[in-house]
Amino acid sequence: MLPIDPSNEVAYSFVVFGASGRLALSRIFPALWQLYRDNRLPQATKIFTFCRTKLELKTFRIKCVPYMGLERDRDPILYNSFWSNVHCCDGQYDNPEHYANLTAAMVRQEKRHDMRFANRIFYLALPPVVFDQVTLNIARKCLSATGWNHVVLEKPFARNDITYKVYQTQLCQTFKESQIYMIDHYLSRQVIHNMFVLRFTNLIWADTWNNKHIAAIMISVKTELPVQARAEYFNQFGIIRDVMTNHMMQLVAMLAIEQPYSSNVEDMRDEKLKVLKQVLNVDMSDVLLGQYCNNGRESDPVKVGYTQHSYIPKDSLTPTFAMVVLHINSKRWRSVPFILRVGKALNETKTEVRVQYKSTDCNHSGSSSSIPNELVLRLSPREQLFMRMMQKRPGPHMCLRETELDLILRDRALPINYQALLLDIFAGNQMMFMRTDEQCEIWRIFSPVLAAIEYERTKPILYDFGSCGPMAAYEMAARHGFKFY
Ligand code: NDP
């Protein structure tokens, strides 16, 4: 790991490719501003935009306003100072000369500060169609010879095992693994880090985190929102590729991982890879697909069915809901289903993991029945970590009631999501980023079933906009031993 250089002899250039896009405006620039405001960025950091759209700094700054938060008004001098470090470059992604211009702009800034070393970060906030040409041109024209170069990649990481092989080969021919940052913002969540510590440092979890005690694990990513921006991309990729093959599989790996040999990054990533290798290929019988519809409410302008959106083909079979049951062939996890559930246009917005323990034999006559312990890791709408437990209801009678053992750390002002990930990229810490071979394993697990779904034109079950999703999904989870309370 290369820590942020404290000697003030290093200049940092942070380049955002595709800066005119939604991700750059809504996530990357707000995070950079918040880090700058909190004095967490290295001192000599300059930010560069690169995209085809000719952006004037003034207009770009205005475009960012809705996402930057109220703090910008509290300290206008600091906010202006942040923008004085941003430089806009435009260019075509396939034109090497335009990359040379970008490099000239970086060098000008690096020289201005009279720094001996230059570290560069290249953030590809771009759709995958231009990925090849951009990585190639960066490698040819933009690399620093006096410091490190980190390239940051966003999902989707290809479409299947075959296209990923091409992606990975191209990437690894151009960059070393230590330069590649495949981003997954779920991994920046404190609740996930905390779960890792809970598991390995507390005997009550260390000893029960296995198939002897755990009945089933459910990971849910539910959103009330329908498909909005990036509809064309979504219709081509579908919800399994969009969410399961990256975010949700990272959660599976973090939940099922064995204790790494050390806290070294590669030991951690080796263990994640090991567990992914033990996940069996998904079988079609373990998949349920859904698509939201408006259930005959033609006149409702808000709750529009998926195929009624003007930009979606009327005969689209793209799933907007999926449940997939994974099986891990290891001594620890054999017979514990990992149930992955994801959906759009549902009744609530919530991302959580429920580790459901087996029931006890406890049977007090006259008492209300007990529910099994459940460890709940909630990532949104706010981070929560609690254990559902049973206790005696106060009073003369032996009655049970459910309670929650609350485990979350609320008292820390920690950098969140993109801020934490950007800091790691500056610090050269790859712990919370995927290694390229992990994604290879994930595509091995999902590609056959995705191909079968497309080949057979599997029809998704229609569910009502704003509902809990297809009822068949509840039945499927129950068949695998998950209990809903
Ligand atoms: P956009 O579709 O908004 O694209 C970003 C920029 O890329 C555009 O402003 C445009 O810039 C350029 N671009 C778009 N289409 C093409 C094309 N066909 N050929 C060349 N350039 C193109 O994407 P987002 O900003 O939403 O996302 C960027 C990347 O991050 C994508 O890969 C996306 O999948 C991923 N991502 C996005 C998330 C989000 O919340 N938005 C979440 C997670 C991942 P210009 O024309 O000015 O060059």
From TrEMBL:
Alphabetical keyword list: Carbohydrate metabolism, Glucose metabolism, NADP, Oxidoreductase
Chief subcellular location: cytoplasm
Domain Glucose-6-phosphate dehydrogenase C-terminal span(s) in chain numbering: 197-484
| Pathway where this protein functions | Carbohydrate degradation; pentose phosphate pathway; D-ribulose 5-phosphate from D-glucose 6-phosphate (oxidative stage): step 1/3
- Superkingdom per UniProt: Eukaryota
Where in this chain does the record put each Glucose-6-phosphate dehydrogenase NAD-binding domain? 15-194
Q: Which SUPFAM superfamilies match?
A: Glyceraldehyde-3-phosphate dehydrogenase-like, C-terminal domain, NAD(P)-binding Rossmann-fold domains
> What reaction is this protein's catalytic activity?
D-glucose 6-phosphate + NADP(+) = 6-phospho-D-glucono-1,5-lactone + NADPH + H(+)
Q: Where in the cell is it found?
A: Cytoplasm, Cytosol
EC number assigned by the record: 1.1.1.49
What GO molecular-function term can you cite, just one? Answer: NADP binding
**Which processes are annotated in GO (biological process)?**
glucose metabolic process; pentose-phosphate shunt, oxidative branch
- List the GO terms this entry assigns under cellular component, sorted alphabetically: cytosol
Signal peptide residues on this chain, from the entry's feature table: none
Q: Name one Pfam family in it.
A: G6PD_N
Record keyword Disulfide bond present: no
User: What function does this protein fulfil?
Assistant: Catalyzes the rate-limiting step of the oxidative pentose-phosphate pathway, which represents a route for the dissimilation of carbohydrates besides glycolysis.
Q: Which PANTHER family match?
A: GLUCOSE-6-PHOSPHATE 1-DEHYDROGENASE, GLUCOSE-6-PHOSPHATE 1-DEHYDROGENASE G6PD
Tell me which family the UniProt entry assigns to this protein: Belongs to the glucose-6-phosphate dehydrogenase family.
- Show the NCBIfam families listed in the entry: zwf (TIGR00871)
Which HAMAP family does the record match to this protein? G6PD
Q: What is this protein called?
A: Glucose-6-phosphate 1-dehydrogenase
Organism for this UniProt entry: Drosophila hydei
